[in-house]
From TrEMBL:
It comes from the Eukaryota. This is Prefoldin subunit 3. One of its GO terms (molecular function) is tubulin binding. It comes from Chlamydomonas eustigma. Binds specifically to cytosolic chaperonin (c-CPN) and transfers target proteins to it. Binds to nascent polypeptide chain and promotes folding in an environment in which there are many competing pathways for nonnative proteins. CDD domains: Prefoldin_3 (cd23156). One of its GO terms (biological process) is response to cold. It holds the Pfam family Prefoldin.
């Protein structure tokens, strides 16, 4: 009897379910070994492709997380320093900074992506960045869980492929031995 790997998130429900086949001889009754192996190999390829895509998504999220945190830290510093003159280092490009004196800051410009920058009041910027940070962390946790689910599914499918292949090798060996015994 075959059992399936359980999924925990709604995203995982859309992913291919990997089957662990308990009883290979019963499962293979009336089935073509090559056809079953081809189907399992296709499922394995699909799982590995999804795994690769999920790894890329996780990497993008891990890149965004420190950027959002850095922007939030700066907004919080500006809120704490309201009414005071501050000297800050501005990053002009990677590894190149310039000092600037600022005072009475009421708004900031935030990059939203795709070449879009929007001006926000400090409190609005803080709320937006806190929301984005929480969303990014939640998405990262989901990506991590989905990746683990996909890796487990790929491993289960690999095991099923190996077990069916070994079953077929043993079946052919027994057929060959029984054929030789009958011809003696």
């Amino acid at each position: 009897m075959a059992s399936s790997v359980e999924s925990s998130s709604s995203a995982q429900q859309a992913m291919p379910v990997a089957e662990f086949i308990e009883d290979i001889p019963a499962f293979m009754t009336g089935k073509n070994v090559d056809k079953v192996l081809n189907e399992l190999n296709e499922k394995y390829k699909a799982l590995k492709l999804l795994e690769q895509q999920m790894m890329q998504r996780k990497a993008r999220l891990m890149t965004k997380l420190p950027e959002i945190q850095k922007a939030l830290d700066m907004v919080l510093k500006l809120i704490d320093g309201q009414g005071m003159e501050m000297t800050l280092d501005f990053e002009l490009c990677p590894s190149v900074y310039s000092k600037a004196k600022i005072s009475d800051v009421k708004s900031v410009n935030l990059w939203l992506g795709a070449g879009v920058m929007v001006e926000y009041e400090l409190e609005e910027a803080k709320e937006l960045l806190e929301t984005n940070l929480a969303t990014c962390k939640a998405n990262l946790n989901t990506a991590h869980a989905d990746l683990a689910f996909l890796q487990e599914g790929a491993t289960t499918t690999e095991v099923s492929i190996a077990r069916i292949y070994n079953y077929d090798v043993e079946r052919r060996r027994l057929l060959k031995e029984s054929g030789q015994a009958e011809s003696s």
